[in-house]
Amino acid sequence: MKVNQTISISTSKALLVPYEAHHVLTYHEWMKDPAIQEATASEPMTLEEEYENQESWRTSHDKLTFIVCEPLSGAASNENDEARQIKAQVDDSPDKMKGDINFFLYLADEDDDGDEVAEPRESSTIRLIGEVDVMIANTQHRGKGVGEAAVRLILAYIRRNLPEILKEYAQGEKLDVEKVQLVGLMAKIKQENTGSRALFKKLGFKQEGEANYFGEVKMVMGWETNGSEDMAEGLEYRELDYVM
């Protein structure tokens, strides 16, 4: 999506920045790990394909992506000045990158595994499900609350910017934005990934059904009652300009 191309999210636990071309080399190295490929249901790609993917994700109307970086340190982390800018390739240099967080939008009726996540709506309403997935690349960064912070932050960002997100989706699909609604959230997680399942359960997601053919469990939560406006509570959430 283009909605976040000049926006970063700074908090005490993590810094989220838009996924740009200068992140691709590091991202490509992460995705060579067979364990990460398995966890994210991804196929190996060439570096050229990764660059093409990055460009596609940036312009896609149904995919919102951030790179997860370490939080600002020192005096910068305590600044209250909203004019503070996040500088590309400085605040998000390769040594500060930790993973990524994604949000996919699709029609609720395309959810083949069931639709308990969504409340019934009038037939004229175009109902959307938002799928969330998070990946923390290096094992030394896991289990420290970074993944949880990333999920909390993207949900808080979506809550604050939902009209613009739905407008971009509607324009891409040539739909009437007034009829488009986000009605539920979902995450698909490998059954053996107990840490990720526990993370989403802590945030209010509930498992729906049993593991599918691919060994994934689906965890769901309704949008209207998810409380994501409070998801960033205590994290010193700030949306700051991201400059290239």
TrEMBL record:
Heme listed as a keyword: no
A Gene Ontology molecular function term of the record: N-acetyltransferase activity
SUPFAM superfamilies for this protein: Acyl-CoA N-acyltransferases (Nat)
Keywords linked to the UniProt accession: Acyltransferase, Transferase
Residue ranges of every copy of the N-acetyltransferase domain listed in the record: 15-206
Keyword flag Transcription regulation: no
PANTHER family tied to this protein: ALPHA_BETA-TUBULIN-N-ACETYLTRANSFERASE 9 (PTHR13256:SF16), N-ACETYLTRANSFERASE 9 (PTHR13256)
Family stated for the protein in its record: Belongs to the acetyltransferase family. GNAT subfamily.
Descriptive protein name: N-acetyltransferase domain-containing protein
